[in-house]
Amino acid sequence: MSETNPAAAEVAAPHRYTAAVAAEIEARWQDFWEADGTYAAPNPKGDLAGDPGLVAKPKKFIMDMFPYPSGAGLHVGHPLGYIATDVFARFQRMTGHNVLHTLGFDAFGLPAEQHAVQTGEHPRVTTEAAINNMKSQLRRLGLGHDKRRSFATIDPDYYKWTQWIFVQIFNSWYDDVAKKARPISELVARFESGERAVPGGRSWDALSAAERADVLGEYRLAYASDAPVNWCPGLGTVLANEEVTADGRSERGNFPVFKAKLRQWNMRITAYADRLLDDLNELDWPEAIKLQQRNWIGRSEGARVDFPIDGEAITVFTTRQDTLFGATYMVLAPEHPLVEKFTPAAWPEGTHDVWTGGHATPAEAVAAYRAQAASKSDVERQAEAKDKTGVFTGAFATNPVNGEQIPVFIADYVLMGYGTGAIMAVPAHDTRDFAFARAFELPVRCVVEPSDDRGTDASTWDDAFVSYDAKIVNSHGEDVSLDGLGVTDAKARITEWLARKGIGEGTVNFRLRDWLFSRQRYWGEPFPIVYDEDGIAHSLPESMLPLELPEVEDYSPRTFDPDDADTSPETPLSRNQDWVDVTLDLGDGRGPRPYRRETNTMPNWAGSCWYELRYLDPHNSEKLVDPEIEQYWMGPRAGQPHGGVDLYVGGAEHAVLHLLYARFWSKVLYDLGHISSPEPFHKLYNQGMIQAFVYRDSRGFPVPAAEIEERDGAFFHNGEQVKRELGKMGKSLKNAVTPEAICEEYGADTLRLYEMAMGPLDVSRPWDTRAVVGQYRLLQRLWRNVVDEATGEVTVADAEPDETTLRALHKAIDGVRQDLEGLRFNTAIAKVTELNNHLTKTGAAVPRPVAESLVLLIAPLAPHIAEELWRKLGHTDSVVHQDFPVADPRYVVDETVTCVVQVKGKVKARLEVSPAISDDELEKVALADEKVVAALDGAGIRKVIVRAPKLVNIVPA
Question: What is the pTM of this model?
Answer without folding.
Answer: 0.86
